[in-house]
Fold these 3 entries.
Entry 1:
Amino acid sequence: MLTQERYQSILSIINDKNAVTVAELAQLLDTSESTIRRDLTALDELGKIKKVFGGATSITQSGGMYEDNVHTRENLMYDEKTEIAKYCAGLINNTDFVYIDAGTTTSRLIDFIDNDKATYVTNGISHARKLIQKGLSTYMLGGKIKPLTEAVVGAESILSMKGLNFSKAFMGTNGIDLSAGYTTPDLEEARIKEAAINTSYMAFILADRTKFRRVFSVSFAQLKQCCIITDHIPDNRFANETVIKEVMK
């Protein structure tokens, strides 16, 4: 494979995965790791990618206002979301008053919850159904339904959260960026995420590696306000800004 062809293949893989290791690229392209390292150095110098220890990540992507529907997203990064969900389920204690945000990874979290002594609050329609099907003590916020994400949003949902003090909040996000923090395309959904984090003793962001270095229209929290639970940390600078737990190594 010619150098320029290899560059294009590397860029395609990194933009698709958002983060990749040298070993993965070497296997996918049937090339030595030393060659891949040289290629990554060259692409980094050209400003095409960000070289990090052991691999590379894509340059920050702007997601704007676009958002896939929940059915499109639920099977993306399936194994990674599963491992994140399993870990987070183990964080729930008997006395916890838990907020579960709408989202595909937070929905997967419910599949692994076995604590029937904690109390749960959610703004996700499918989330509430899954919780009650498991016989768990469940409350749902009131408000306007957003069909695309099957979430309850709006001023009424924020008002229904008034006076609630969550011990733990498990949150979803569309993007994580060093400057913009946690972002989402929808203003109403951002405001309810913000309210839930601000009224929680501990807040966890459940996010696979593809969420890093992406920026959407509305920020709802700074990095330091939450602990990130992810499958892979694409850039160690994120770990300098907040607590991160990597569940797949």
Entry 2:
Amino acid sequence: MAIPDLLIEEAISWRRELHAQPELGYQEVNTSQWVAEKLRGFGLQTHTGLAGTGVVATLENGPGPAIGFRADMDALPITELSSVPWRSTRPGVMHACGHDGHTAMLLAAAKHLSVTRRFSGTLHFVFQPAEENLGGARKMVADGLFERFPMSAIYGLHNWPGLPVGHLAVNSGAMMASLDAFEITLSGRSCHAAMPENGDDPVVAAAQLILALQTIPARRLSPLASAVVSVTQINGGEAINVIPEKVVLRGTVRCLQSDIREKVRGLIAEFVSASPPGITGQLVWLTDYPVTHNNAVEARKIRDCALALLPENQVHWQVNPSMASEDFACMLEACPGAYFWIGADGSTPSRPLHNAHYDFNDEIVAHGVAVWSTLAEQLLPVAR
């Protein structure tokens, strides 16, 4: 599909403008206003306020079904270390996951489709806040996304380092793992470090628990199950010569099957409750996202549309899912749809996502706009 060069240049300039002005989840006030102004300028019915800073724009063009395309807008709490001219101007905040590119590509697709209108039906362009661990998708659903903007399906994409530019990958099932973040507080009895017999040591209990948790994927689950349990924070103690009163552990669980997810959560609770004598354990679940599980019918539609745009060897079907997580899963729980990846590796490999040197590859922009536009025209065909 031919996308005008001037539109691609404009989209790249938007992307770089967004990159320089990143905003964290639920703080995307300026980003939201900027996106809404662009969409209104394209002549779209534009609505703001879902999940606080979310934006939804509607393009109607004759009879037919309604579908949704989604992009995420938030940045990460990372200090950017790249030296690009459009690097972040906000200390400690950067677009390290490509949400600036996702937003710019969907905006460009909206502009293109508002002019060409080679489809019949309704398109909802969903710009979501707070994807990074804050559940913006779930909040948009709770705020009535699918009641206010009824649609038969919703689709989302992500740029994917490790996959070449111009390639697309999609599965008929899981694309991304579930996410469950936990906090475990182990409480004991503090005492002098030289007299441990006078206390109950939560530090030793924490060490034992961390090792025990690693036996869950290794010994408590089938080797065919997919699960990762990671303790990522250990906090406790104030003085070098004092055994502390408590230690706090935090970490995450990732799974590709919902039943395995529930089993792992139960096993962690079991291990925490079996603390050593004198130690009490408390488990609190923090962030949770379900498995990003594509609807099989909608995933095949993505594959078929991709094959209409790309050579067969650039369309990847039934790839290995990622153990990273994505809150688009919450939209897929409420509405049929599919989530897919587009390649990010151009003339040089992309930096990893969530890396302080990462920058969205602008070589992707034309491909991303073409993918969205092709999906609109293939999924909402004009009656002949």
Entry 3:
Amino acid sequence: MAHVSLFIGQVQPLPVSGRLTAMYKTQVHGSVELGIEGFAGDHQADQRVHGGPEKAVHLYPGTHYAKLAVQFADAAPLLVPGSMGENIATSELDEHDVHLGDVWQLGSALIQVCQPRNPCWKIDERFGCDGMALFIDQHLLTGWYWRVLQTGTVNPNDSLVLHEAASQAPTLHQAMTLWREHRPNLDALSRLAETPGIAKAWQDKIKQRVSYLMK
């Protein structure tokens, strides 16, 4: 079980470029509906790369903020839960604690771990720190996306509770480590692509890489 805070946000301009983002979130203090494409009232600026059923909900581990604050001290006051654009914040889970395909209950909803987040350049501008997105990517401090298997109502005092463990699947950290290896074991990479519950977009990328490395 993990205690959580909930966040949703509207589309706003970034401070320098003016490019639109929905990374700025506000904490939810009342009940909120969780649908197939995410929490009611939550928006995405660029739906080509954000949102949709397999990026419906983003969780960012709270323990990552301290690591980022050490590396990017000037941004430390801004590095607080919710500031990475996540919908769910918790300090009780990270990528080592969840398996690809795990199903968790949150309120009356069921959600499934399906892929890591791919950090983008907007993180650098949002925090005023060049290289933060790259650091997050290189150190696997990404958080992850959930798909919604069962819609429902979520309250701020609800906790994440493991409903169905994908114990035979790799942890998200193991999966990301394998995916990032320069010359990964192709059998292991192929098995990763067939993990039940994996997001199709990530599955396709893994299969394409396997095909390329087999040439």
